[in-house]
Design goal:
By secondary structure, the protein is an alpha/beta fold. It has 42 helices and 26 strands. The chain has four domains: 362 residues, Alpha-Beta Barrel (7-stranded beta/alpha barrel); 165 residues, Up-down Bundle (immunoglobulin/albumin-binding domain-like); 217 residues, Glycogen Phosphorylase B (Rossmann fold, 3-Layer(aba) Sandwich); 187 residues, Rossmann fold (3-Layer(aba) Sandwich), CATH 3.40.50. The strands form five sheets. The protein has an eight-stranded mixed β-sheet, with helices on both faces. The protein has a six-stranded parallel β-sheet with strand order 23-22-21-24-25-26, sandwiched between helices. A hairpin with a 5-residue loop joins strand 19 and strand 20.
């Protein structure tokens, strides 16, 4: 049978399974997937290749293998377990033959299966359990072009950072070279998942080509042709031919669904495993150790029903292995004959393959293609069985092109040499780079359509038992067809002749590149070979919760890598080594690669000042992150198949990752190789559970610009930072003000300096300072007093002429970058998931986002230098630590409160203890420490062993307010006498007591509710207004319910609402048990509202009892009611208090003076950094 329209076929088989090795336990169902695939897919594939090699068959195919599968193939424990399972299967076959004595058909099948598994056992022993050297042999002989996959088979288009994608692909290339000894030159991306952001990474790694889904499911690039094309940047793209692939791949009409093929679901491991007690006892030694039913490979039924597939309610006809072998050979010949029609030039594909699998097809249609009975029997012995993924929803792991075919000389005899060269079986690019000379291009034939047919290797033998026979027949028939073409041509002038009869039947990507030119085209924006051609299989309502968590982990890994590199005095050397390794990867000489086990890369790692322990932790963190990124988990969850297991594995690796990162903080620089036994055992356990990627390089996660900087490469200038809403003129002025130099848009602008992370402190004490501020909240949206204090201080510093940049959290629809009261504000998005993250997890994400934003700010503004760093409270500790180290800045810390104080001395839960530890670390890290009150100074020196002389007290303040706020008139209601003895206003006059603040235990709001009945006795119309939100809201609401409308909850009050509430209030009550400062007191003073406050913390320095307010212990409700009533009944006293308080506010809490005091601390920290003395 000849091919009517010869179109070369590029067969790509992708081998991948999720990482299922578990060292600490018995055989699990998931690990059993691997052993099934070994028995029924991978060993039969080796068996097939051995026969083709011995038969000198020259039909090259492309084999993509994922690095996780390579690692499992290399695992001695898994090799031994496969051997034991094969032995049990052979034993089961003998027992089955006895059990089925009265059933000749099934007994004959059992005998056949036992023989086949005995052959596979012998083959496993022959290769000593090692698959990888065998594949290298086939690559050397030109039978296959080996290509790897991204490290753990992730769906790369859904990655957030370039660094994470680079790390996956870089690890794939280095692992491939470690296993096979030569570099790949292309890639088949997992799931054919592509986005343009991957293209520069691929080319950077020397990966010149990839295989993508055709646009709109049609073959070929832009003009309806199936010819491969090259993008403007140089990436070569082969488009998958969906129509040709569907002859095999289609669930509804593909060959594997033919009624005569073996039924996958009818296995005695399930049928007897759920049968009578005697049957269960019989089969138990051959299923999972705990008795869970599992496939044994012994199946006696054929699909039977036209619909095929699962185990229907009706009976199944007996399986006829001979007829199935004939059918597989016929289908192979039909596929070969269909290649010319299956890849039309822009037209729809033929449906002949679909018709071919229909049971209604006449026998005559197949008769010409069916081999003799003897040949069928011989070929049937090569039929294998099993794989783990459905053919319709496969995982194409990845394909990187490039093998050592050029180095082979073949086993062909001299008369066969011409056919050998023409078929490409023993010619290929290998690891060499393609010559760029125009003369070489001139010798290439014009672009030619190619039928790119891509399949999961696991289809062939697992779901489709006869698949290996189909494949071997196809490759043999293709070889015969190739020989026929050359015999008919009578020419031996070589493959360059444009005679279509001499075109190769099968190609590999590298062989096409050597023979043909490429069309010009553009790759799609996003594509995959999944349902819909997009990301919906992996990103959908069932899986969308995974990606924010993965994105946060990506950034956490990049941050940890950056921190480690910066603390490494040999970081520059490390990055130069990494750059050299990149160059070696794309080198044309395979021998230029040095194994990391013995080459310079490994030695550089060991010579770094980084400890081996730090290196181990980061390597394992990279492994855990990559395993969490596997697309297998999202696919299983979306399909509903093993969804619980997939979610469990995802969380396991993510949790492992987050357990590892904090260990880095526990490494003592004075004893860098010492770690607590528990944490060391944790590291050991993770390494034992995932012994993969021996040479994973955590430096692959370093941000590109940082890598270039540390490697002494000068990046090009990025666009200058432009605050939102600024005109070009305003932008220019702001830029010149920041840098002290003409801006890039100025006629006086000079060429920018190279980017640097070393600050250039301002040497003129009178000149303005450049301050970088880290604060978790900032106006206008505020939750507590911290944000107000930071905003007021930053505004004052800007008014004083200093350059202030604030990194803070973004809320609602706030702009990412803006200019607020002269302050440059950069708001970061904190990644969220559909599940509310734990508080500390959210804090960690916030810090990651802050650090990355600072790094981007420095990259965008290469002339910007800061003089000092100011961190507000523990929530920004991680960012403060890293920025201080990266930017070489003096660190000024303001502690606004402590967890010890908030919890009233009870640090009895893990979160509180971690917060306390972060506060302690931040206080220790600070070059200068600021607190807001004398009581806080006492608290901090006591808690954190800080010398009191090293703590500066600078109170919070408020900007100057309007005259209306400062001169509010008291309510004009005359006084009268009452039963209580107090001078009173009429009981009918409505009075309002205001509480402003968070609803948390330390604010002691129940005290006000306990005092309220005493107030209502004198003033029945009094209303207590509680403005704020917090975790105690429900509890306080319950306490207030008996008072009805006498207590009003307003919820969160923004600045405008707060001003209205203060304008209506008669008394502001602050009953706190713990109050480091009490900025609400200042707000009340400014609004002219008299105060009743606790005699505690910072309030003791704000309110002078009986002079500008009342101050009393936060314990006696009756006493509190008495003080409140005095102010309600006596407007004269209230007015006196507010007048004195206003004067105090202007003199003691003046923002101008506070700004000056803070600037003095900054300058002191800068001077100390320059000095050799201890400050």
């Amino acid at each position: 049978m000849s091919i009517s329209q010869p179109v070369p076929a590029l067969l790509v088989f992708h081998a991948h399974l999720p990482y299922v090795y578990r060292p600490d336990g018995g055989l699990t169902l998931e690990e059993y997937w691997f052993h099934e695939a070994m028995c029924d897919v991978y060993l039969p594939f080796v068996d097939c290749m051995d026969r083709l090699l011995n038969g000198k068959v020259c039909s090259p195919v492309t084999l993509s293998v994922s690095p996780v599968l390579l690692s499992m193939w290399e695992n001695p424990e898994l090799q031994e377990r496969t051997r034991e399972i094969l032995k049990r299967r052979v034993e089961l076959g003998r027992k089955e033959k006895e059990r089925l004595t009265d059933k000749p058909g099934p007994a004959s099948l059992a005998y056949r299966y036992a023989g086949r598994y005995a052959d596979m056992l012998a083959l496993l022993d022959k290769i000593d359990g090692k698959m990888i050297p065998r594949l290298r042999l086939y690559a050397d002989r030109g039978l296959i072009q080996l290509i790897p996959a991204a490290a753990t088979h992730p769906f790369l288009p859904l990655f957030k950072t370039e660094e994470a994608a680079f790390a996956q692909l870089y690890t794939a290339v280095t692992e491939f070279r470690r296993y096979f000894g030569f570099a790949p030159s292309g890639i088949w991306l997992p799931e054919c998942g592509y986005t343009p952001k991957l293209e520069p990474i691929l080319l950077r790694l020397g990966l010149r080509f990839t295989i993508l889904e055709a646009p709109d499911g049609k073959s070929g690039a832009g003009q309806g042709s199936a010819a491969p094309y090259v993008t403007p940047d140089g990436l070569q793209v082969f488009t998958r031919d969906a129509a040709a692939s569907a002859l095999v791949w289609s669930r509804d009409s593909g060959y594997p669904g033919h009624p005569d093929y073996r039924e996958y679901y009818r296995d005695i491991g399930y049928e007897l495993g759920r049968g009578t007690p005697a049957e269960q006892a019989y089969i138990r030694p051959y299923v999972l150790p705990d008795g869970t039913p599992a496939a044994t490979g012994y199946k006696y039924c054929r699909i039977t029903g036209a619909a095929g597939g699962g185990d229907g309610a009706g009976g199944k006809a007996p399986y006829d292995a001979g007829r199935a072998a004939e059918l597989a050979a016929a289908h192979a010949r039909h596929f070969l004959a269909s290649l010319g029609a299956a890849v039309p030039r822009g037209s729809e594909a033929t449906a002949r393959g679909a018709a071919g699998v229909d049971a209604a097809d006449s026998a005559a249609d197949w008769e010409a293609a069916v081999p003799t009975a003897q040949a069928a029997a011989g070929l049937a012995s090569s039929v294998s069985a099993a794989a783990k993924r459905q053919p319709a929803e496969a995982f194409p792991a990845s394909g990187l092109a490039g093998d050592a075919a050029r180095r082979t000389q073949a086993a062909c005899t001299a008369p066969e040499a011409e056919h050998t060269r023409a078929s490409g079986c023993y010619a290929g690019e290998g690891g060499a780079s393609r010559p760029a000379a125009s003369a070489s291009e001139a010798r290439l034939l014009p672009p030619r359509p190619v039928a790119v047919c891509a399949f999961d290797l696991e289809l062939f033998g697992h779901w489709w038992h006869e698949g290996p026979l189909w494949l071997e027949t196809l490759l043999r028939e293709g070889d015969l067809e190739q020989r026929r073409r050359y015999a008919a041509s009578g020419s031996h002038s070589g493959p360059s002749l444009p005679d279509s009869e001499k075109q190769p039947v099968f190609l590999t990507p590298s062989l096409y590149e050597e023979r043909y030119a490429f069309d010009k085209g553009t790759a799609p924006a996003l594509s995959s070979w999944g349902r819909g051609g997009d990301a919906r299989v992996w990103l959908n309502p069932a899986t969308d919760w995974m990606y924010p968590l993965l994105h946060a982990a990506e950034e956490a890994m990049a941050l940890a890598a950056a921190r480690a590199a910066r603390t490494d005095t040999a970081a520059g050397k490390a990055h130069q080594a990494l750059a050299a390794e990149h160059d070696a990867i794309s080198s044309s000489d395979p021998l230029s690669f040095h194994s990391p086990d013995s080459g310079p890369n490994r030695r550089d790692h060991e010579n770094l000042s980084h400890t081996a322990l730090t290196d181990r932790i980061l390597r394992q963190a990279a492994r855990e992150l990559m395993l969490a990124q596997s697309s297998d988990w999202a696919f299983m969850i979306e399909s509903g198949d093993m969804a619980g297991y997939a979610a469990e594995r995802f969380h396991e690796h993510r949790n492992n990752f987050y357990q590892l990162l904090p260990i880095l903080d526990d490494i003592d620089e004075r004893q860098p190789d010492v770690l607590s036994p528990g944490k060391l055992e944790l590291l050991h356990r993770m390494e034992r559970s995932a012994p993969i990627f021996a040479d994973v390089n955590w430096r692959a996660y370093l941000p590109r610009y940082l890598s270039e900087t540390l490697a002494d490469k000068k990046p090009s200038r990025a666009p200058a930072f432009a605050p939102a809403g600024l005109s070009p003129e305003e932008q220019t002025a702001a830029e010149e003000r920041e840098t002290g130099k003409p801006s890039a848009g100025s006629s006086q602008a000079k060429p920018p300096a190279a980017n640097s992370f070393t600050a250039a402190p301002n040497t003129d004490k009178k000149a303005s300072l450049r301050v970088l501020v880290l604060a978790w909240e900032f106006p206008p949206h505020l939750i507590g007093g911290l944000g107000r204090a930071v905003g007021d201080l930053a505004s004052q510093l800007a008014r004083d002429g200093h350059i202030v940049h604030v990194i803070t959290c973004r809320r609602d629809d706030e702009a990412s970058d803006s200019l607020w009261n002269g302050v440059h504000v950069h708001r970061v998005e904190v990644l969220q998931s559909s599940e509310s993250p734990a508080f500390l997890d959210w804090v960690f994400r916030l810090n990651i986002a802050m650090i990355l934003r600072v790094e981007r700010l420095m990259e965008e503004n290469q002339e910007l230098r800061f003089d000092t760093l100011h961190a507000h409270d523990w929530l920004v500790y991680y960012a403060a630590r890293d920025c201080r180290q990266a930017l070489r800045l003096p660190l000024v810390v303001t502690l606004h409160a402590t967890e010890h104080g908030r919890k009233l001395g009870r640090l009895d839960d893990p979160v509180s203890r971690k917060i306390h530890a972060a506060e302690s670390s931040l206080a220790e890290l600070a070059d200068k420490l600021i607190v807001c009150s004398d009581s806080m100074a006492e608290e901090v020196t006591s808690l954190f062993n800080r010398k009191k002389s090293g703590v500066t007290v600078i109170p919070n303040g408020l900007p100057a307010s309007s005259d209306a706020e400062n001169n509010r008139e008291p309510h004009p209601v005359p006084a009268c006498a009452g039963d209580s003895g107090y001078p009173q206003r009429p009981p009918s006059a409505k009075r309002r007591i205001l509480y402003l603040g968070r609803l948390v235990p330390e604010k002691n709001i129940p005290l006000l509710l306990a005092a309220l009945p005493y107030v209502l006795e004198q003033f029945p119309e009094t209303e207590l207004i509680i403005a704020g939100t917090g975790p105690e809201e429900a509890f306080i609401g319950g306490l207030a319910s008996p008072f009805g409308d006498r207590v009003r909850f307003t919820g969160f009050a923004d600045e405008a609402a707060k001003a209205r509430l203060l304008a209506e209030a008669d008394v502001c009550a602050i009953p706190s048990l713990y109050e480091p400062f009490g900025i609400v007191a200042l707000e009340a003073m400014r609004a002219g509202v008299p105060l009743v406050a606790s005699d505690t913390g910072g309030l003791a320095g704000l309110v002078e009892d009986g002079v500008d307010g009342f101050r009393l212990p936060p314990a006696d409700p009756r006493a509190w009611a008495g003080k409140i009533c005095l102010l309600l009944v006596d407007p004269e006293l209230a007015a006196l208090f507010t007048k004195r308080a206003s004067a105090k506010l202007r003199t003691c809490f003046n923002m101008k003076e506070i700004g000056t005091a803070t600037t003095n601390v900054y300058q002191s920290a800068i001077n100390c950094q320059r000095s050799t003395k201890t400050c």
